[in-house]
């Protein structure tokens, strides 16, 4: 993995998950602790983080939705288009938080479906489409990431059922475990999985391995993974052993 790519992943992990230990970053990125220490030193010299005992921290907190939404848009649209083709008219669809779910929502205009979401940007995208039955889950607002979380959101999900869940992720471990950088979102994601017949993970190439310290689910909880690039051999084997269908959507044009 190129140093620039490692630096991006390190900063994303720190922005979303708070302080991170060298050992955790080493495991997530598949490089030695010595390499991570050199990366942290370089990033500190550039003023992008502060090293602390055993790791590093940034002060920014969660990366705002608006910033994440501008990253790898073409890749996300390829994934969203392929995912939208799975949905039949009359079905109910749960859309997770995150920017790829938002790109999927943009593909659903004019469809006769029900969309259930805790993603405020999805709600805003579909609110004026009268053909779509739109259900917004209750909960506490995370303003910086435009989502709803908490026990109210989870209680709402226990009263609902969906044909499909389109799930986002911060990273997928080589063993197929789905990870997230924000602990408060994990119970909502798990409640979405429990409320759905079919679970589709939307994961662009940056999510293998991506980041994340909190486990959302294992590969056995997934039915399909839709990505835009070939999945590494180890991860693909773990997913397929669990019965997951790995779908590689069309390539992004340069």
Automatic annotation (TrEMBL):
Pfam families: DeoRC, HTH_DeoR
UniProt keyword list: DNA-binding, Transcription, Transcription regulation
Taxonomic superkingdom: Bacteria
GO molecular function, one term: DNA binding
Alphabetized SMART domains for the sequence: DeoRC, HTH_DEOR, HTH_GNTR
Positions of the HTH deoR-type domain: 3-58
PANTHER family for the chain: AGA OPERON TRANSCRIPTIONAL REPRESSOR-RELATED (PTHR30363:SF44), HTH-TYPE TRANSCRIPTIONAL REGULATOR SRLR-RELATED (PTHR30363)
Protein name: DeoR/GlpR transcriptional regulator
Native species: Streptomyces cupreus
Lineage: Bacteria, Bacillati, Actinomycetota, Actinomycetes, Kitasatosporales
